[in-house]
Please model this.
Amino acid sequence: MKCEAIFADSASYSVRKMCKVPGLREAVRCRRKKAEERRNRRIREEREDILAVKEVFEEHHRIYGCRRMLQALENRGKIMSEWHIRRIMRENGLYQTRMAQDIMNNLGSAGKSIDFWRFGFYQRQN
Model:
């Protein structure tokens, strides 16, 4: 609360005098300002990462999972961890849409019966 008042009135009064009144050191103000800058930088980088993942996902017709997404982003020069990509995809609802079709084509052509319950294609009736 005290630091917000100092930030608000720093244009009209010197920081040293404003910190002296509530009994704060100037270092506190600097730490708070640096922490806010770090927070804003992280938010900005997170937004850029989300946009990059969405762009690649839509460019490849919504069929890339996190591992293929990782390779595509590395080819573009954007380095992220697999778990970071997983979290972004999960939080933004980016799920593969053609996985069911690929499973049916691969397993169905081999002459095996497909257990649709296992893949979650149908909801069980109670």
About this structure: Residues 2-97 form one domain. The longest helix spans residues 26-59. The helical segments are 2-8, 15-20, 26-59, 66-75, 82-91, 99-109, 116-119. Residues 59 and 72 are 11 Å apart (CA to CA).
